[in-house]
């Protein structure tokens, strides 16, 4: 099958809040999911997979809030091929606009033998029955054949034919373990199209993982063969090595229209803001050389390249940074800026906040603007994360005093509010951060293990906000916390407490 007529529409299905949230260490609360959901709405995705409602009450609530609040796009939720899962998924999404139930079961022999312990006939029956049951709730049902790329293709065709007859309007062919190679994957999609008699009655979708770094390439190869829905995540986050990155797929289509004459509904100028928001709220730092949204994606280091770009941008840039909303290093606010200007800039960055939330951000903005002459978008994003989007706090930093320097043993005194009551602890450590963490650990009585501690200067200059990421593990739960402050020790303690709040949230709700 060759290229389709020009300007065919590709449906962009974003699963940042479901598969993306399955990234190790990521756990988003309802408020964070709502912020990302609103930003995805602005970005123009067609479908948001908001979560897996049966997995936890927190997931259920997040999906329900998104379904109730977002308009102009479809909200979907994942459900195994079981009635109970489907009931709960439907309950969560039913108030949404054109709610879609997404049910799945594995089709590969490996999964059948070791995971499901079922025969192909049993799986076929379960898939058909699940879709029929889901179709009783909604005319919009997606079915995924998990591990499709390692399945017997004739079996997948048989399952797809049965579920389409049972009411599936989208059938999804996932490369669940990121095993496919682009030309091989293209051949599979071609085979499915040619050997599933009723395939024209459903949208054919693909969902590619990035274990071999080929997710985006596989998605593009599938589009070429007739896939018309692509399942992606912002920044490519997701299980293990992640999913195909939305920004990569969309910008490849846009940049290479000569080879990919398709349209998406994405407003690409919101890509950078969305990427930053997702990175900030998930704690998944974007690698510097990441395509499209990495810090270095538009940085030209060698003299020859810099000279070329200054003479003519297109010598070394295939994308105009403005097209993805990159306002490189643009100064946006200073200490004389008022509340109104702050609100407008936050909206530009994708944050829709209540008056009370703006007030909170404004107070810390003024404090930062007093210390730093220039306040950049990244600083504002960090303030929003600090003041508004944090997990509802069980533990809150009240004060911190550290004594350090050469020749003395570092000590920290930390005051933390725990469930509304203030407590204080003093501790020594190898350095001031170690001392402060030890004091916090004693106060909170945590036995969590520190897996990662990373410091990043958000903008240049010694007055930059320091952003700290902390990853903790406790009883098998892994969480990431972030904190930002011009004082690096304060930022570290904030990040630690943020992670501890997430652990508490996970234990309570997940
Ligand atoms: O990777 C996968 O197969 C999935 C399915 C549930 C669609 O995430
Ligand atoms: Zn997946």
Describe, in plain words, how this protein is organized in 3D.
This protein is an alpha/beta fold and 510 residues long. It folds into 4 domains: 9-282, TIM Barrel; 298-327, no CATH class; 339-387, no CATH class; 395-509, Double Stranded RNA Binding Domain, CATH 3.30.160. It has 16 helices and 16 strands. It has helices at 30-43, 57-69, 83-93, 109-116, 120-135, 153-166, 182-195, 215-224, 246-255, 271-282, 303-311, 339-348, 355-371, 377-387, 432-444, 488-509, and strands at residues 8-9, 11-14, 47-51, 74-80, 100-106, 141-146, 170-175, 203-208, 229-232, 262-263, 395-403, 411-418, 421-428, 449-457, 466-474, 477-485. The strands form 4 sheets. It has an 8-stranded parallel barrel, surrounded by 7 helices. A 3-stranded antiparallel β-sheet has the order 11-12-13. Strand 7 (170-175), helix 7 and strand 8 (203-208) form a beta-alpha-beta unit. Helix 10 (271-282) crosses helix 14 and helix 13 crosses helix 14. The model is unreliable at 1-6 (pLDDT under 50). It binds 3-methyl-2-oxobutanoic acid (KIV) and zinc ion (ZN). The site of zinc ion has 6 residues, from loops. 3-methyl-2-oxobutanoic acid (KIV) is lined by residues 19, 104, 144, 146, 172, 174, 176, 207, 209.
Structural class: alpha/beta
Strand content: 15-25%
Unique bound compounds: 3-methyl-2-oxobutanoic acid, zinc ion
CATH fold-level name of the largest domain: TIM Barrel
Please tell me the overall pLDDT.
91
What spatial form do the alpha-carbon principal axes imply? Answer: globular
